[in-house]
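Hey,
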Amino acid sequence: MQSLIHPTAIIDPKAELDSSVEVGAYSTIGAGVRIDAGTKIASHVVIEGPTTIGKHNEIFQFSSLGAKPQDKKFKDEPTLLEIGDHNVIREFCTFNRGTVQDKGTTKIGSHNWIMAYVHIAHDCIVGNHTIMANNSSLAGHVTIYDHAILGGFTLIHQYCQIGEHIITAVGSVVFKDIPPYVTAAGYDAQPHGINAEGLKRRGFNAETIQQIKRAYKVLYRQGLSLEEAKAALADMETSCPEIGLMTRFLAQTTRGIVR
């Protein structure tokens, strides 16, 4: 049976790879790396540990995963990169490990579509079913919730939180949190309605989308203070549970929201 690991690949003896993992030519897998079943690693990929990678991921050539964080406070502490299952990670992506000043872990969930040249910095958390288009970048400590879509060249400032089902336009620069369902664009990013097309594709019915549009107007178009808008949205949640994503997000935002 032909080996799934190319003879030019360098695998550290302290790395743990499932027997079904494929590793392409000239890739390097370091000590403390664990890779689960069915994951495919193309040529010229560098993976440093401690890093754990789940099942059935596809990692394209020239990506660098698990390197030290780009943080001057880092002193070689044993921090971690965690990657879930069924992710597509395209060419030249860079994902850094965490820092002890925060969670100590950079975490990417499952079923994410991550395009070329994406950078995910230390202590970021990326949920599930997200799309990050070419050259989008996350500074440290960013949280991206499920089903978010970042347009190409989107830049997210450190500590920002990006809500479920949002979408950003190409070239957006985000300095504040983006609530769920919102479309954001510009430098610095401002809200431009809801991601209605994305919601349709994910099976939201027409009435629910209309309710989310009304919630957006309460938040952005009625001249309410944030506290007044939060109270109004809490009332709306009783008839449309999906608005709960917005109320819970607004209750824990610390940087303020895009305006």
